[in-house]
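Support request from a user on the community tier.

User writes: "When I paste my structure tokens into the form, the page sometimes reloads and wipes my input. The last time it worked, I copied everything first. Here is what I submitted, just in case something in the input itself triggers the reload:"
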């Protein structure tokens, strides 16, 4: 049988590779799938949602279009961040339970000490689910996420007191939709290892006019708010809406991303020695 350069490519060539498409994600943006990335002379100006749900992300401002990408990571030229590279979507991401996966590389904090990676919005209620890195108290000490409502009072943000890293990483966050003010309703995994969820004491504060964004907070015109952009690169983001996914499915998505992007997981997951296959 034909073989690729590694186990991931071999499984892909032989038609045995399991992918998140089996789980019918609500949104899936993949910057290695050049067939879904529209480019012009300035860079990537649209990331088409691979889930088929038309939650596409775009950037029409030449100065802010991310550079086009291809596998492996070593072939990528330049970061998204530091200069406000980002994409925006006006699509609705509805309230309630969510599971969010993001694969990214962080290079450092902007002046605000808040680096936004992924924000998705329920447009009907101005409800937000954010994922960002924070520099708290002068040290890279906390990864931060929140399910917040644009109102006079906002919920306490949730996060994990894990040190920020400049290595490429995979994060998995789940929210069961039961109580957005309870740590028990959230789970957080970093490179396959479970982390303790804590209340950070910070609050979500996005304007009601902002759109869903990749790589930054973005205003109603899709222009990034450059003090809070990702200084680094976003490789892939997958969002599931409607229910918290099962533990084994979490591990399958992590295994898929790990083998695809060459990121070693911290824990010893089921897919430490091979990528997930159809039939697992």
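"...and here is what came back when it finally went through:"
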């Amino acid at each position: 049988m034909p073989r690729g350069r590694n186990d991931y490519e071999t499984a892909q060539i032989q038609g045995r590779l399991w992918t998140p498409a089996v789980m019918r994600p609500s949104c899936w943006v993949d910057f290695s799938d050049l067939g879904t990335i529209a480019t012009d002379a300035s860079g990537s100006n649209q990331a088409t949602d691979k889930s088929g749900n038309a939650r596409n992300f775009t950037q029409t401002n030449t100065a802010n279009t991310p550079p086009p990408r291809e596998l492996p990571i070593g072939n990528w030229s330049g970061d998204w961040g530091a200069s406000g590279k980002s994409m925006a979507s006006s699509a609705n991401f509805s309230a309630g339970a969510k599971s969010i996966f993001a694969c990214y590389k962080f290079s450092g904090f902007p002046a605000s000490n808040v680096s936004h990676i992924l924000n998705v919005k329920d447009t009907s209620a101005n409800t937000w689910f954010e994922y960002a890195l924070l520099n708290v108290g002068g040290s890279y000490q906390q990864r931060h996420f929140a399910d917040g409502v644009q109102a006079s009072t906002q919920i306490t943000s949730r996060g994990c007191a894990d040190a920020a890293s400049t290595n490429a990483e995979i994060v998995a966050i789940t929210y069961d939709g039961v109580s957005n003010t309870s740590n028990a309703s959230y789970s957080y995994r970093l490179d396959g290892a479970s982390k303790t969820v804590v209340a950070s004491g910070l609050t979500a504060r996005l304007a009601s006019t902002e759109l869903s964004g990749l790589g930054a907070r973005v205003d109603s015109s899709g222009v990034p708010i450059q003090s809070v952009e990702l200084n680094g690169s976003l490789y892939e983001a997958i969002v599931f809406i409607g229910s918290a996914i099962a533990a084994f499915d979490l591990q399958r998505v992590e295994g898929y991303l790990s083998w695809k992007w060459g990121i070693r997981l911290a824990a010893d997951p089921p897919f430490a020695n091979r990528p997930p296959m159809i039939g697992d």
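Agent notes: The reload is a front-end session timeout and is unrelated to the input. The first helix runs from residue 7 to 13. Helices lie at 7-13, 247-261. Escalated to web team.
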